[in-house]
Amino acid sequence: MSQEFPEAIVRLDTFSSAVWYRGKRGRYLIEGSKCGNCGELFFPPRAGLLCPACLERKMEPHRCAEGGVVVAQALDDMGFPAWGYGDDLPRHMVVVRLDDNVHVMGDVVDVGPGEEVAAGLRVRAVLRKHRREDTGAWAYGFRFVRDTKGEKGGS
Amino acid sequence: MSGIIAYGNAIPRRRIEGTAIRAVWGNLAESFLDMLSIGERAVLGSDEDTLTLAVSAARSCLERAGASGTDCAKALGSGAAKALGISAAKALGSGAAKALGIGAVVLGTATSPYASKAAANVLKDALDLGAEVLACDVQCAEKSGSTALILARGLIESGAVARALVVVADTPNRHTPPGNVTEYVAGAGAVAFLIGKEAGLAEFGPWKTHSWDQNDYFRLEGERFVRSGAGFYGWVANWGLLDHVVPAVASFFEATATAPADYSKFVVPQKTGIRALMTMGKCGLDMMQVLPYVLTQMIGDAGAAQSFLSLAHILDWAEPDERIGIVDYGSGAGCDVWSVRTTQALAAGRPETDRVLDQIDDKILVDYAAMLKLEQKMLRPADQLSNFY
Ligand SMILES: [Zn+2]
Description:
The complex is a heterodimer of chains A (155) and B (389).
Chain A (H helix, E strand, L loop, with lengths): L16 H6 L1 H6 L1 E5 L5 E2 L16 E5 L3 E10 L14 E8 L4 E6 L13 E11 L5 E9 L9
Antiparallel strand pairs in A: 1-2, 1-3, 4-5, 4-7, 5-6, 7-8
Chain B lengths: L2 E8 L3 E4 H8 L4 H6 L4 E4 L6 H15 L2 E2 L10 H6 L4 E2 L4 H6 L1 E7 L10 H8 L7 E5 L5 H14 L5 E8 L18 E8 L5 E3 L3 E3 L25 H21 L8 E3 L5 H10 L4 H4 L5 H4 L6 H12 L5 E8 L3 E9 L2 H5 L6 H6 L2 E2 L2 H7 L15
Parallel strand pairs in B: 2-15, 4-5, 6-7, 6-8, 12-13
Antiparallel strand pairs in B: 1-9, 2-3, 8-9, 10-14, 11-14, 13-14
The complex binds zinc ion.
Zinc ion (ZN) binds next to loops of chain A.
């Protein structure tokens, strides 16, 4: 019996290890940006300091809320998933409005038979294994699961 | 003095029934299912591993301790935090670590996703605990958790750090070869303890250990699957079990001047139900001290995390001022025995959601083929990029 680890390594250079590594705070903690002047929130984080809303240069890191509500969903059941996402189909791809009103895209995972994923579903972020990098290292990041504990948070 | 301030637990949602495994392999007499307490066991999702379970348990633990990760989450004011008078941390960056005084994160696991890289650092980053916090992996077979806890207690009791986060996570199911008898019981899970100098919800008592090198379940470098040291499951493994557990428990009772009757509950090794019964019988424990806290028949054996899940389950329901013993055995690692005594704070501080039994009840049953796929046990070509090419 082969003892080789069978998880596929993504060999396309679309996401290099360096890019995955630099983005780890965004993936682990949903860290985006917040304007220190007008309070506008951004995810993914902005590259520069400039706020497009008030033109002030006071952008700082901001950890987004970990809970939120699904506002849009698409079921990927075409049988032709994006590279590296073929292991757990169909995919429930969603846009989530987090409790601080930041919108992020993600997957809802651990969906059981008869459980519906639709707008209005309360979800919370969990850390999951996204894929293997081209070097073989594991890339972890947030995904969403149904939140059975209900509403909490919101500033 | 040191104690548990808060705890959190995580169990994969997916499960498989022992009968579904037997339907494929037929490699176990039907009567063995009952004899070994084989019911259902946890199945990993394809995106779950030791670290993802560790992060879930640790986030729940910190939340219960009153530290929320994000500045938007309200000061949660959980029962545990209130009962202990910890003001809720409402901070960015490493605020949670600073507010709770966490100086060390110790991850106990025998199934780290990396052979050499510190998985505890991924855990620490995912909790946003700050670069100044010591991070360390402890690998000591199925007693990685107890050993990690004993080391972290040392850091606290010596005054080196104010508080420490001990996370025990294990995924023996992904490391069990198809067709092996251990496939019926190997599960996964994680528990996190925030510990500190105070008695908290439960105060630690003394510990004792007993170990030597035993040629017993191990994984070789670069290999995914656990090998049996002597070929027949249940023979050398159970012999090693009693060789370590009996003297360890005896020396524990002697050192603490206590007897089995002084403990209301006991957590015992439970890779299968037989191990729990053997430990119970040989150590003079009573059925009612042991059997209600054996979780194997519901979620299988979560390796290093199993005895911690049992203890978390006990803390979910225990009364104040109960003495609870923990006997933790690891293959080739020996046996650690320790105890906790619950405090008055437990009555108000016990969790009301996401208890161990809540997580056990919240499940999705999968069949054998799905389990093989999800636990990455199917041979696949190395050049495959997607399902079409
Ligand atoms: Zn602005």
